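thought: fold this chain, then report.
action: predict
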Amino acid sequence: MISDVTNLIKSLVDFKRIWPKPIGLLFAIIVAIGLEKFILFDPIGFSKTSYLICLIITSISISILWFINRKPPKTKKNKIGFVVSIRCSNEDEGNRIHEDFIMTLQNLIKNGPLGNIFHFIEIKQHIAEKIINREKAEELQKITRSHFVIFGRVRFRQKKYILELEGIVSHGPIKTIIQAKFTNEFNELFPKQIEISEENELLKFEIASQETEHVAKYIMGIAAFLTYDLVTSEILFTDIKLKLSSVDTNSSALKKIIERLPFRFFDIYLTKADFYINRWRESKDPSYISALLDNLDKIDKKIEDDCRYSKKKTAAQYKFLLLKSVAVFLSERDILKAISYIKSCESITNHETWHFNLAFLEAYRGDLKKAIRQYRKCQEFVKIDPQTVNQVEDFICWVLEEEPERYQFHFCLGFINRYIKEDKILALKDFEKFSALVENRQFVEQQELTKQWICELKNEIKNEKLLNEM
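observation:
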């Protein structure tokens, strides 16, 4: 009896192994036909026609089931598809890789903070055998609708398991330059070959799975960031940071990830901060100011120092300094601190925005002479972005609404309209407002200039009107 049960179990295991192959389909149909002949044919009086129809239906049903079963599953809706396709030389290697590497990797992925939104897919051998290059892997990625695919093969040589792996990740449409940098980082970090000796192989498989997990999540975090999924990106990077903070590793890839994580967080928080300042510009909702400052404060102190003190600044560092200055002004009205951030931009000679911002801050604290000096530097730029000028004007007008006692900004608006926008009518109105509000002992030099400019503008407007009437 026991031997019969053992033989039955062995038969089922063998059948499961051959089922995906054509011989498995043929075997299943033959067994089904034999059973139907034994059960259905003579005992209850089935006719030959009925029996034939029954056989056809059974064969078609098994064939449909076989074709469906052979196809790789698709990533479930609203899930992150994580596909592993590793081809093996024999069944023993396949079982070992499945148990000690793939299952460990699956558990690590599923147990992370985003485990509930990952759909982990292990590709069966009859499909994995065909995934031999990147083109085939990309086809598999499309079929499975997945975001990340690890593919390759395992060999057993000289008492060592050798895993030769490659990976591809879906990152959506991104600029060619960014895509090249992303691809280079991916190729640099992803473990191309993992060697595991038979000594302590279980532990080494686990370590290999952990390294693969961290690299995969890091790469997916970058991909998520590039496609503006900042929430997923931050969660993935935070998970890696927590896990690697307590790990003493010799892996060069993991060491590089540890070094680069602060810069990845910098990109995320800076992008969020930029989002919140734009929302504030649209709505003037103070809650956006809190969110802006909160994200900027999360940036690593060392990176902030690099932004402030490096001689040659990147576009991201420049943006950080501008946003930090605005955030400090909006949240604290700390003019000196805001100016200190702006003055860190002095090495940037090809952009006008920081001059506008510094002019505003100088005007706010009442030094119109220094403010006009900065506006004149803006004049030197051949082409000024109209959006920048509009944002500058909008910001000044908002401050005037909030703090009407800062009437000196009417002088600034007059200068901007006359010399930068070349709108004489608006400039005249602004200068007249300043002249009407200014006190006798305040801004004496600017009062004289205002009187002179008002006369000049009136004459210029009058002459232009006469020319148009001729």
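thought: worth noting. The beta strands are 80-88, 118-122, 148-157, 160-169, 193-197.
final: tokens above.
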